[in-house]
Amino acid sequence: PAPYNDACRAIRMVRSMAGELDIDPQMMTWMHDIRVADCMFESLVKHATPTLTLEPGNAESWDVSPDGKTYTFKIRKGPVFHDGQPLTVDDVTLTLERLIRPPKGIRSQLAFLLGPATDSIERVDDSTVRVKLKYAFSPFLSSLAIEYAPIYPKHVVEKLGDMKTTIVGTG
Fold it and tell me: What HEC string does 90-145 produce?
């Protein structure tokens, strides 16, 4: 718990001169904020440094259908959020829905890019999530690796309605 509280304080300090505090990475626009929040969250996949090749994050593996329209993610067993709750497939599906089809009052940096291409997001079983696209969209996987796409805890989002004032991630 202490590290994410420290990150919240750091973001508040950086943003205190800029106005309204918003520590939800999906909604952040300041790179200073993103760099701090990036240490606290993890996405399904991530870019390896310095090559920018994709590597596992909260997804231990993924498969892409031959037509490039279906992505199947195996979710890693073991990650826990800062509040001690384990990462689940339900956290992943909620996050992807929120990223691609954000609810009213939530803006997503990726909705304009991924929304038109996405057909469905489904929980296959306790360790698998499948995303079906309307058409092959080559930047899909790489888009999930950027800082605006961290996996959020469903139990926190449902309780608070958003992640604007708290950091509970798996990073």
Answer: HHHHHHHHHHHCCCCCCCCCCHHHHCCCEEEEEEEECCEEEEEECCCCCCHHHHCC
Q: Distance between CA atoms of 92 and 75, rounded to whole angstroms?
A: 8
78 bridge partner residues: none
Q: What is the pLDDT of residues 3-26, one digit of tens each?
A: 545 555 565 555 555 555 566 777
Burial class (CB in 10 A: 0-12, 13-18, 19+), 52: exposed
128 vs 154: CA distance, rounded Å:
16
pTM for the structure as a whole:
0.83
Residue 82 CA to residue 169 CA, distance in Å, equals 6
Tokens matching residue 170: 């798996």
pLDDT band at 110 (very low <50, low <70, confident <90, very high): confident
